[in-house]
TrEMBL record:
Pfam family, one: TPR_16
Name of the protein in its database record: TPR domain protein, component of TonB system
Species per Swiss-Prot/TrEMBL record: hydrothermal vent metagenome
Gene Ontology cellular-component annotations: cell outer membrane
Keywords from the named record: Repeat, TPR repeat
GO biological process: receptor-mediated virion attachment to host cell
Presence of the UniProt keyword Iron in the record: no
Gene3D superfamilies cross-referenced by the UniProt entry: Tetratricopeptide repeat domain
């Protein structure tokens, strides 16, 4: 009799347990559907909360909830991603990274290569954007850390390299600036998006080197100026100003032949008033001892601050005919 009662009791407990599991799966399914509704409404944060709750129930139930669990994990992965993107758009960078990292981790678990790849790209992009924000705030060390984080996540992050170009400019670290713009150039070879960023970085780098060269000329450091101007030509070889400044530096160093070549190159590229360049060309020809060419160049100085000086050289020094 006792054995019969015990058996009946065990059977009752089993049925009760099965009922609880069935109720739990039903509850998880209802929460999953609520999550789907929030996802459809693009309320990704609320969807994440509901999917996480449903997933917790599924894991507690075990194998009997495996089918539902797979659906929940798939939707939760996608929701983590889009929630991260929402935080990113609102410039909430830390929470964006946290959600995108969850998306990436779960995507790896469930073999969702698409979400894994997109999360990987955006994690780096968010780090770079945070770096840009810190750079604008003049928090250079903190910005550098964020660009480093971006490149650890994605070594081909052109946004991070562009940020490092801007950081180097702010720090007046021209070698680092060139190193990073050159790395961008490598990435640009295989990416049209990177190529657009590279074009901007080249423009910034060229102008920084050009202006630094001009500053060295003002400081009466012509050899140092030539070094910066030579680097500038690597990023823009068809600019009149870089050749004009090079001619000025060469004249200061009495490199007459080089000055003549640079001044003529500048003249071939200039589309506006050329008097200053003709004056420099005249000085170079004069220094080289080519009187006729010097007279011709000085005669073309018709505007600007060097008109009187050019006339003096023609009439009093060279005695041009």
């Amino acid at each position: 009799m006792k054995s019969v009662v015990k058996t009946a009791l065990l059977a009752g407990l089993m049925m009760f347990g099965i009922g609880l599991y069935a109720q739990s799966i039903t509850n998880a399914g209802e929460i999953f559907n609520q999550g789907n509704a929030q996802f459809k409404a693009k309320a990704f944060g609320k969807a994440v909360t509901l999917y996480e709750k449903a997933l917790k129930i599924c894991k507690a139930v075990g194998p009997d909830a495996s089918d539902l669990q797979s659906q929940v994990e798939s939707q939760l992965t996608t929701s983590y991603f889009w929630n991260g993107i929402s935080f990113y758009k609102n410039r909430n960078f830390d929470q964006a990274v946290a959600q995108l990292k969850k998306a990436k981790a779960m995507a790896i678990t469930i073999s969702n290569a698409k979400i894994k790849n997109y999360a990987h790209i955006y994690i780096a992009r968010v780090y770079a954007s945070k770096g840009n924000m810190l750079l604008r705030q003049k928090k250079l060390a903190e910005a550098s850390i964020q660009y480093g984080n971006a490149l650890k996540e994605d070594p081909s992050s052109y946004n991070a390299y562009y940020g490092k170009v801007l950081l180097a400019k702010e720090k007046k670290d021209l070698p680092a600036m060139m190193t990073n713009v050159d790395k961008l150039g490598e990435l640009a070879a295989s990416s049209s998006k990177a190529a657009k960023v590279y074009a901007k970085a080249k423009y910034i780098t060229f102008n920084t080197l050009l202006n630094t060269g001009a500053e060295e000329l003002q400081k009466m450091h012509p050899q140092k100026a030539l070094e910066y101007l030579a680097d500038a030509k690597k990023y823009h070889s068809a600019n009149a100003d870089v050749y004009y400044y090079t001619a000025l530096a060469d004249v200061s160093l009495k490199k007459w032949g080089a000055a003549i070549a640079s001044a003529n190159k500048a003249l071939s590229l200039q589309t506006t008033e050329k008097s200053d360049t003709y004056f420099t060309l005249g000085q170079a020809y004069q220094g080289k001892g080519e009187k006729t060419a010097a007279c011709s160049a000085f005669k073309k100085v018709v505007k600007g601050p060097n008109v009187a000086a050019a006339k003096y050289q023609r009439t009093q020094v060279l005695k041009c005919k």
